[in-house]
Amino acid sequence: MRSHGTPWVESRARLQRATLAAALCLPLVAAAAQALPPAVLAALQQAGVPADALSVAVHDAVSGKPVLLWQDTRPVNPASLTKLVTTYAALDRLGPAWTWATPVWLGGPVKDGVLEGSLFIKGSGDPRLVIERLWLLLRRVQQLGVREIRGDIVLDSSAFAVPDAAPGEFDGEPLRPYNVRPAALLFNFRSVLYSFVPDPGAGVARVVAEPVLTGTQVDASVPLAAGPCEDWRGALKAGFEPGRVRFAGSYAAACGEQTWAVADPQPATHDARLIETLWRGLGGVLHGVARDGAAPAEARPSFELRSPPLAEVVRDINKMSNNLMAQQLFLTLAREAAPLEPATPDAARALLLRWLAQRSGGFGGPGNELVLDNGSGLSRLTRISAQRLARLLLQAWDSPVMSELMASLPISGLDGTLRRSRATPGRAHLKTGSLRDVTALAGYALSNNGRRYVVVAIVNHPQAGAARPALDALVQWVLSDVPRFRP
Length: 487
Fold this sequence. Notes:
The protein is α/β, with parallel strands linked by helices. The protein is 30% helix and 22% strand. Helix 3 runs antiparallel to helix 7, helix 3 (82-94) packs parallel to helix 8 and helix 8 (323-337) packs across helix 9 (345-359).
């Protein structure tokens, strides 16, 4: 348990004070350039959300001229719209083709298939070290002639310095994959995917875990049940304990095949157990153990595993709003700015704040309404205005990486987190954001007459989730070429 007075607590307290200061820097309601469109007001009223809970900034993307402003300078929680800041900053600073490198050392000579020493793997923040790529890494080791390791498999995660925190600190849900803590060496999101496959002939649903971790037993099946498919996860009565996964309930046959991603309950040892599982699965022999430790400081690595290009990783982050990948990228920015120092959240925040002040046209100074907690938006403290985000998107529209950023955003009615949008399919590329009391979207919309607009809309209210139709109505209003609406 963390004690008061630690650097982490002091940093958090400073952030909370900054949040309050930012909220007091601006008037509660900014002057509106226009009243809200009737369809938006009607949807807000039906949701039980007052109009003053909404912030809007709509600009013509080409001229930059404002089209609709509503409380656009008020600091609000943007939820996952924060990922626009992180991903655009990364594309801008690192370039779309940039990759993470994960160096690997054979710590000794190889004789007759035996490595007379340890295997070292050092992380640099790659968020895509999933099972398939780890398998390729270990196959490369075997291609170098290693079938047996006399020493250990040593995992070096020293490139990041992330303060300790309970996995469920944000919302009390420690087994949700989005609550996994970032790390310089992060295997398979430190999560397990459980598949449930009905077998009516046997009267059970087969349980398939991917991967099956060394030292963990998983129930192979769960009884099938009749009736509709409702809360199938709750009906399983699952127990995820260190070393044991049980399903004490039943599974409705009507559910068909379903999957459930669960964060490993032992995150500190997950990577070691997974790499050992994969090595032995490839027929490798390990005399030592998989453990944390330091990689060789001076020796040149035997090889490096390169990640997919940044543009591809950014699409993963924004299309499906992957919080853990965004936080990995957030810390990577700090690491790349100061490669000889472990990356910290404080360093990443400072870097992003400076960059954002530069890229948003100097709007409001460097921090009048600006508070960044982490790079994902999984935070109650983050504050930014709709106008700041709109100016950032306008700047991005004229940047060399516009196409990569825009292509990473969900498409209305078609994919990612916008696949259920009620706006005209295919006409808008928009990042979404949602928390318990936040619903938001921001990005680009192409009107019916071929004009491109920047759209930012954020609701902060206890009933924010019910206000999604109001945001869809706003997008549809923009797609209809923003008629000259007079209040």
